[in-house]
Amino acid sequence: MASRTGFTRLFLRSLFIQGSWNYRGLLDTGLEWALLPRVEATDPESGESAHGIQAAEPFNSHPYLATIALGAVTRAEQEGVDPLRIRSFRQALRSPLGGLGDALVWGAWRPVCLVAAVLAFLAGIAPLLVIGGVLVLYNGVHLALRLKGLRVGLELGLRVATGIRAMRLPLWAERIRGVGVLLVGLLLGMLWGRGGESLGWSSGWLLGAAGLVLAGLAAGERLRRWGPVLLVGLVLTVMGLSASGTPPSATPTEETVQLSDSVVEERRVHVRNQLGLHARPAAEFVKIAARFQAEIHLSKEGLTVNGKSIMGVLMLAAERGTELVIRGEGSDAAAAVEALGGFVDQGFRET
Amino acid sequence: MADPLGLGLLLLLGSWAALDGTAVGQFMISRPLVSGTVAGWILGDPYAGFLVGAVLEGAHLGGLPVGGARLPEPGPAAIPAVALAIGLGGAGGMAAGAALGSLLSLVGGATVIGQRRVNGWVMRGIWEGKTTPGDLAARHWVCIALDGVRGAGLTAVGVGISALIVSRIDPSVWGLSTPHTVALLVLPGALSAGALLRAWNFPRHRRALLALGLLGGAALAASL
Lengths: 351, 224
Prior knowledge:
heterodimer
């Protein structure tokens, strides 16, 4: 077994193992670099030892599970196993460590954490808090996987396959995917709910989004790399239509909506609190606005959003000192603007 | 767009995001949601950073780096995307930022392929014969350093393009309102979500979970 210092060195080196990843040997040079301490201990100048540098054949692994190979090879070399047998063993580990890690981490744990982060933001948690929380959650599991893999490898050496089975990685991947389906459902439900409120339930946008979800479901792997291309295409299309003077949407924007027989009330206010219009006051603002029948619009430097939409209010990103215009349209517009203006004037009731 | 200190921090962040995605750690700093939010914080608007990062995350969420496959690299690209969104402001800024980020992520993905070819060239001596531990370590660190420079370079070019666009384009020409812009930018995320669900397999009990989530999400949207 490796000493405590040896264990720490192997663990820290595992963080850099992908540093020289290349198309010829894949991770082989990284693995050899991570294993260098055992060669240096023998002869720092020549590197001559019973187990010299063996970057001769491609090796690959998911980076988090590469610690299993690091530990197992170290243990086997300490036990004096024939180098040719160790080389075969490295080859045998290549597929399982790649497949298991990709399915568990890239295919399940990481997307689930990212979806959870967006849900937390939509629930009103401040972005930096969301990002800090999700990094702690994600990397807690990440580092635990690296440490567990190294321990299992060092304990079992060439018998590490039994240890890998005992980690039950496919089962965990399956469970995380189940949670992921629920979270993706929650996210889509929240976005559709918000979209329905902001755009109208009969809007073609919602149908388009539903159609794209179904297209992704039907096509799977074939379409999932097309997200960025679609994003660029959509934005460029709208830019082109805007530049040519053709209205890109038949739906009127907030600025052009007019309600007949309604009272219109407008008030200019300034953001007074230190943190600006962040998540908590934005959620409170939306709650107050929702108590009134009147349509509420909030403007900052010419940008107008729906005052009853948390996404819209947050998008204004109004800092301390920003001037906002609260505009109400409807029978109780005066009372609504009065209540909302008072809320802003009070610094969102933050001390 | 940013003072010299802010610009320096953005380049460091870009370098870290590139390294995190390819060479060092894989702590998720390379995801656009994370790098975008941190870039927004550096530029004084973490909300805008999170929103642009979330749009890019949605567009890229379906791509899984299985084996040695390389995909677009959205981590460093999110930084100029956020700089552009904040620089132009409003719905038009957000749309332009997201589009620039997506384009740069495709360029970034191509440079990752180039970096890995360069790594092979730097490490060639290792396969050609006997090498010393010091030589192997030096070559390994050179590869990591080059990758860090690649990330900083990509970010610098992207921020430069952002600054140029901010100085040349009037964001008021954007023809969609804020809610419609958000709807537009969420559409690629809808495609990715469907593809992700397909990748997770979809037996009957999972369909029930999805339905439960959809109803719960709609209820949450109404209550928040």
